[in-house]
Amino acid sequence: MRMRERLEAIENTNHTTWSEEASRTLVEEVIPDSAKTVMVYLAHGTELDLDQAITHLLDRGVTVAVPEVSETGSDMRPILLDTLSASALDVDRFGIRVPLKRHEVELQTLDVVIVPGVAFDRSGARLGRGGGFYDRFLKSLPDGTMRVGACFSVQLLEEIPTDPHDLAVGLIVTESGIHQGEN
Question: Which of 20, 110, 118, 167 is close enough to 138 for a disulfide, judged by CB 3.0 to 4.6 Å?
């Protein structure tokens, strides 16, 4: 079964419950209490939804950033997210929610970056959607920035093909727990 079919087969109830479980794991076990700025994606379609984690981080006083793809489509930058209120969000050309007010967050302030993916493997390798946005973005981060993948356990494979420019994550969080990457 192809990954798209696997994701579409997840029932709405499971999607919600599993997203909440992964969010709880992220907030309680993965993101250090010392983290001041965390970049998290806003889920699109069948992606693992981290809105609950975002709400907890905002309530804790953490600065939350989300990705925005530039108008040229060549790069991605972190922008400030201070609420998940629908009235404060817009939808970009990819159908992804973004804040109406665009305030860039400095890369060097990011303590943790949560990365989505079509699939991850047990070594931390990530298969994206093919645009290369996250690969380029992850390369631009300071060395000490924690890189965490987030997906449903059906997206965690034994091995995925990678190219030399692909960057792995150190941890992968799913509804079933934390998986340590080799990198």
Answer: 167
Alpha carbon distance 47, 64 (integer Å): 19
Q: How many structural domains is the chain composed of?
A: 1
Quote the domain boundaries for residue 35: 3-180
Q: Identify whether the C-beta of residue 152 lies closer than 8 Å to the C-beta of residue 177.
A: no
Longest CA pairwise span in the chain (Å): 42
**Model pTM score:** 0.90
Buried b / exposed e across 76-92, counting CB within 10 Å, b at 16+?
bbbbebeebeeeebeee
Structure confidence by residue, pLDDT tens digits, 15-62? 688 899 999 999 999 999 999 999 999 998 888 999 999 999 999 999
CATH label of the domain that carries residue 125: 3.40.50.10420
